[in-house]
């Protein structure tokens, strides 16, 4: 009986491992799909802000989009599970360190996005379009482009 149980265990354990890794693959690919939507949403928020500034439209909406981006900066740390790259993704391997954790520098860049987005919201609330436009340029450079140039590939 014991022998039979052992035999079963020996059979089951590798299968279990396979099921786990399959689930992990599925989770990762779902997360990568979600990440694409998440990124596109960020892009739309930024585009909306630029259009609103250009045509001096709703300040309230400029603030809302800025707040959304500030909130999404922290969420950035969740949408890059270890090794989630390849396929259509433009994510680069340097996002993770050797242990598979998000690299310090990547986290710093997500932090910069948060800082610049919050500053943007503060300035937007003051209502001066010239200053808002200026901060949007800084935000796009320090809060978006600086990460893309290091961690987003072709
Ligand atoms: C901490 C790093 C980081 C920051 C900060 C960041 N991004 Fe990204 N972004 C990425 C990476 C990495 C990808 C590629 C993800 C992928 O393809 O899996 C990406 C993809 C995108 C995409 C999708 C385009 C494409 O490649 O399909 C858009 C749009 C985008 N980002 C906009 C923004 C905007 C707007 C900001 C600033 C408000 C921003 N990002 C800030 C890392 C960042």
Task: List the SSEs and their pairings.
Layout: H1 2-54, H2 59-75, H3 104-126, H4 129-151
Heme C (HEC) binds near residues 40, 42, 89, 90 and 110.
Record keyword descriptors for this entry.
single chain; 154 residues; Four Helix Bundle (Hemerythrin (Met), subunit A); elongated; binds heme C
Summarize the structure.
By secondary structure, the protein is mainly alpha-helical.
Describe the structure.
- With 154 residues, the protein is an all-alpha fold.
- It has one domain: Cytochrome c/b562 (Four Helix Bundle (Hemerythrin (Met), subunit A), Up-down Bundle).
- 75% of the residues lie in helices and 0% in strands.
- It is built from 4 helices and no strands.
- The protein has helices at 2-54, 59-75, 104-126, 129-151.
- The longest helix is centred in the first third of the chain and has 53 residues, at 2-54.
- It is elongated.
- Residues 35, 39-40, 42-43, 46, 69, 76, 89-91, 106, 109-110, 113, 143-144, 147-148, 151-152 line the site of heme C.
């Amino acid at each position: 009986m014991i022998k039979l149980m052992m035999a079963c265990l020996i059979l089951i354990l590798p299968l279990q491992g396979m099921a786990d890794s399959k689930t992990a693959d599925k989770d990762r690919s779902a997360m990568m799909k979600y990440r694409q939507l998440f990124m596109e949403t960020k892009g739309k928020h930024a585009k909306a802000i630029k259009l609103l500034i250009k045509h001096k439209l709703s300040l309230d909406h400029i603030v809302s989009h800025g707040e959304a981006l500030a909130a999404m900066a922290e969420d950035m740390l969740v949408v890059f599970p270890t090794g989630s790259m390849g396929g259509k993704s433009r994510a680069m391997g340097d996002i993770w360190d050797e242990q598979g954790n998000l690299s310090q520098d990547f986290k710093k860049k997500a932090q910069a996005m948060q800082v610049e987005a919050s500053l943007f919201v503060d300035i937007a609330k003051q209502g001066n379009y010239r200053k808002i436009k200026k901060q949007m340029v800084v935000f796009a450079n320090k809060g978006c482009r600086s990460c893309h140039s290091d961690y987003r590939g072709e």
